[in-house]
Amino acid sequence: MASRRDKKKSPSDLAESTQIDFDALDEFCAGIELEDIEFDKWCDHHNSLDLEISLKVDPQEARHGCIKEVELSRAVTETVGDEAVSKREKIKHQIEIKPGTPNGHRITLDGYGDKEHGQCGHLHVTIRYA
User: What range(s) does the Chaperone DnaJ C-terminal domain occupy (predicted)?
Assistant: First the structure.
């Protein structure tokens, strides 16, 4: 008895399996929304040291206020001798969610973004109701 691995696929089998893959890809891509953005604007955004994250908060917690801890990693680039050396650094920070904070509210934390040669970006935290 031949195993599945030993069985060779005919050209029609390959075409059918390829079509199935394209159908799955089309279905996957249909759920993706792309932002129309100019290249220069994209470069400005991606050259920034700022980081953006979403923080899930229960609506009850947001109504009464709470403290949430976020943990993330940021890029740190330093000059060592004549070379720029990059590494990842894990950071934790407690964020105060004030009573009545609405869904979509954005909190900015200065100095918690990526770090490059002594300069730090901001960490932008968007509150999302879970």
Answer: 51-128
Domain 50-129 has CATH 2.60.260.20: yes
Token reading at 103: 């869904």
> What are the structural domain ranges in the chain?
50-129
User: Contact 130/54 with Cβ under 8 angstroms?
Assistant: no
Q: What is the pTM of this model?
A: 0.63
User: In sequence order, which ranges of 4-128 are alpha helices (DSSP H)?
Assistant: 11-30, 39-46, 59-64
**Secondary element (H or E) of residue 57:** strand 51-57
Identify the pLDDT of residue 24: 78
Q: Which of 87, 93, 88 is nearest to 108 (CA)?
A: 93
Per-residue pLDDT reduced to its tens digit, 1-26: 554 555 566 666 655 555 567 777 77
